Amino acid sequence: MATSSSLTPPPVPIELHLRNREKLLNSIRHHLSQSSRPLHGFVLLQGGEEQNRYDTDHVDVFRQESYFAYLFGVREPGFYGAIDIATGKSILFSPRLPAEYAVWLGEIKPLSYFKERYMVSVAYYTDEITKVLQDEWQASGKPLLFLLHGLNTDSDKFSKPAEFQEIDNFDTDLTTLHPILTECRVTKSDLEIAVIQFANDISSEAHVEVMRKVRAGMYEYQLESIFVHHTYMYGGCRHCSYTCICATGGNSAVLHYGHAAAPNDRTLEDGDLALLDMGAEYNFYGSDITCSYPVNGKFTSDQSLIYNAVLDAHNAVISALKPGVSWVDMHKLAEKVILDSLKREGVLDGNVGDMMVEQLGAVFMPHGLGHLLGIDTHDPGGYLKGPERIKEPGLKSLRTTRQVQEGMVITVEPGCYFIDALLVPAMGSPNTTKFFNHEAVGRFKGFGGVRIESDVLITANSCKNMTKVPREIGEIEAVMAGAPWPLDKAS
């Protein structure tokens, strides 16, 4: 079957980033007014720099720092950007490139190019930052800079505040900007949603392409290659949102498989279950999709049992999602549905309510139900200032405990895995051993796991699933046998 695509990469209006700047400006002005502080100062962000591979002259493909990308949409390295809170003026600072740049890397663009391309009020060179901001400052005393400094609760790393020569000539505020700008990123505009939808569309199409081509005897990395090729060839997606997870057989119980020590290199065997977690990034905005299915295109009874347990949890959460719903409650709902299924099929015994009290769900689904999605795969803002992380198994891995709100894009990714490091202690514990049908659980040794992940937009009264891949067992088997997708319901 020849590879093709029904999709064309859409143009992304730079107005998307202009609106993001306006959203931040309104939010920070509101905060300053509420705090009885004057409405002046400059938001100043430093964009990303190109990185060499260790001490070599190999330059890794550049991808812009996410907060800078959010506000300015600049694809080149070495920039700074400022927003004047008093006037709303946006200022872009470009590096002053040496003449030899034109020989090796192409035309040196004039400042007018960056002003027009990125829809800013004015553009200058980075060596003019001090003079420009001092000239723009209308109040008395040193000009005030609001710099980005705060903790990313997914990575436990801090964002880097802008640095430049002569910054000592300015007053700096390191606490105000980060929570306000992070909260701006939590809900998406219509223009952002359109880009995320395309990332989902091309990634969904690529997942189906992999589904059609997977065969026993292939290597896991070949599945990754098919996906990456399709999203780049037909979607213009040079970057993936994250390192592809192409796990088969027992590897599918390794939650973050695909890393350098486990680089998607196993040979697929007939009878394997594949768990493929891959998402493309388009114009900074990402997707995050997981499909699980048998390598040979036919589910066994045990594969069907676990797959349907996870699918039921996935569908139950999506049916319940709407503004105001607690993400903690959604995680517990997914756990309960999976435990109900495992009990119904004889893998577990006893009262599911008692299992929940003993946190048995975390033995089978140790990760959180999902996360915010946008410019980063794990978009920031999952934890508002105040509430502590929950310490209980499973729930401690949640990337947010918020109530969902309209405009959020969030992943729904329940899973059920057979991980010896979790099962053996639970089956041997006096508190939980009674819940296990040990003989039935033994059938699943080496099984791996199933994860089903879709990207979901929270709407005014419910939600919309942005991901478009086969999910029902009948759909998957039909597509893997050569049926078109979407299926022709009339036939």
Q: Mean pLDDT, as a whole number?
A: 96
End-to-end CA span: 21 Å
Oligomer: single chain
What sort of overall outline do the alpha carbons produce when their principal axes are compared?
A: globular
Query: What count of structural domains?
Result: 2
Named CATH topology of the largest domain: Creatine Amidinohydrolase
| Count of individual beta strands | 19
Question: Helical proportion?
Answer: 25-40%
By CATH, the architecture of the largest domain is named Alpha-Beta Complex
List the helices and strands and how they pair.
Layout: H1 15-34, E1 42-46, H2 66-72, E2 80-84, E3 90-94, H3 101-104, H4 111-117, E4 122-125, H5 129-136, E5 144-147, E6 151-152, E7 157-158, E8 171-173, H6 177-186, H7 190-213, H8 220-235, E9 239-240, E10 245-248, E11 273-278, E12 280-282, E13 285-286, E14 289-294, H9 301-320, H10 327-344, H11 352-357, H12 361-364, E15 409-412, E16 415-417, H13 420-428, H14 438-442, E17 449-451, E18 454-458, E19 463-465, H15 473-480
Parallel strand pairs: 1-5, 3-4, 5-8
Antiparallel strand pairs: 1-2, 2-3, 6-7, 9-12, 10-11, 11-14, 12-13, 15-18, 16-17, 18-19
Cofactor: Mn(2+)
Catalytic activity: Xaa-L-Pro dipeptide + H2O = an L-alpha-amino acid + L-proline
Pfam families: AMP_N, Peptidase_M24
Would you kindly provide a written description of the structure presented here, covering whatever features stand out?
It catalyses: Xaa-L-Pro dipeptide + H2O = an L-alpha-amino acid + L-proline. The chain has 491 residues and is α+β, with helices and mostly antiparallel strands. It folds into two domains: 14-186, Creatinase/prolidase N-terminal domain (Creatine Amidinohydrolase, Chain A, domain 1), CATH 3.40.350; 190-481, Creatine Amidinohydrolase. It contains 15 helices and 19 strands. Helix 1 (15-34) packs across helix 2 (66-72), helix 1 (15-34) crosses helix 6 (177-186) and helix 7 packs across helix 8.
